[in-house]
């Protein structure tokens, strides 16, 4: 369930969620209009690190938080078989992970080192190929 909260702003911000309200008695720099920012709140969505007891299944975002990686690094770890998803999900299906396994991996220094090297190597390769393409164009 999603809720939206409206927060008044002292002055307009460069933001796509800005909405201008009808003229009111309160004046601002923008000709008597009040500016509001719509803020989206998702109920029951708190950081995984605040949980007292972890759920049995974790999604990619929660797994990334527990392991200390970025969410976009999880597919790389899956591709290199350093992480394994529960079941046999399709390539475009959301992936879930066993929290017991993720907790074990988060405390294994050897695995964390190997995963970090894999992520670093992946992004060095991606950024290196981009630099080569740019240098060939010049």
Physical arrangement of strands within the biggest beta sheet: 1-3-2
C-alpha termini separation: 51 Å
Total DSSP E strands = 5
Q: Please indicate the percent range of residues in DSSP E strands (runs of 2 or more).
A: 15-25%
Kindly state the percentage of residues in helix.
25-40%
At CATH's second level, what is the architecture of the largest domain?
Orthogonal Bundle
CATH topology of the largest domain: Multidrug-efflux Transporter Regulator, Chain: A, Domain 2
Could you tell me the mean pLDDT? 76
Order of helices and strands: EEEEHHEHH
Using only C-alpha atoms, the radius of gyration works out to 22 Å
Find the structural class using helix and strand composition: alpha+beta
Q: Please write the CATH class name of the largest domain.
A: Mainly Alpha
pLDDT < 50 stretches: 1-6, 11-28, 32-44
Q: How many strands, what sense, and barrel or not for the largest sheet?
A: 3 strands, antiparallel
Structure explained in plain terms:
Helices cover about 35% and strands about 20% of the residues. The protein has about 140 residues and is α+β, with helices and mostly antiparallel strands. The protein folds into two domains: about 1-40, no CATH class; about 50-135, Multidrug-efflux Transporter Regulator, Chain: A, Domain 2. The protein is elongated, with a radius of gyration of 22 Å.
């Amino acid at each position: 369930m999603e809720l939206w909260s409206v927060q008044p702003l002292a002055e307009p911000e460069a933001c796509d969620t800005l909405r201008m309200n009808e003229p009111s008695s309160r004046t601002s720099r923008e000709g008597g209009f009040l500016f509001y920012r719509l803020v989206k709140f998702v109920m029951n969505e708190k950081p995984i690190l605040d949980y007292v007891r972890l759920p049995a299944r974790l999604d990619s975002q929660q797994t990334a938080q527990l392991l200390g990686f970025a969410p976009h690094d999880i597919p790389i770890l899956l591709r290199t078989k350093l992480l394994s998803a529960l079941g046999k999900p399709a390539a475009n299906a959301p992936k879930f992970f066993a929290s017991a396994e993720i907790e074990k991996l988060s405390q294994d220094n050897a695995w964390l080192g190997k995963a970090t090297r894999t992520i670093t190597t992946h992004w060095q390769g991606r950024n290196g190929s981009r630099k080569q393409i740019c240098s060939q164009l010049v």
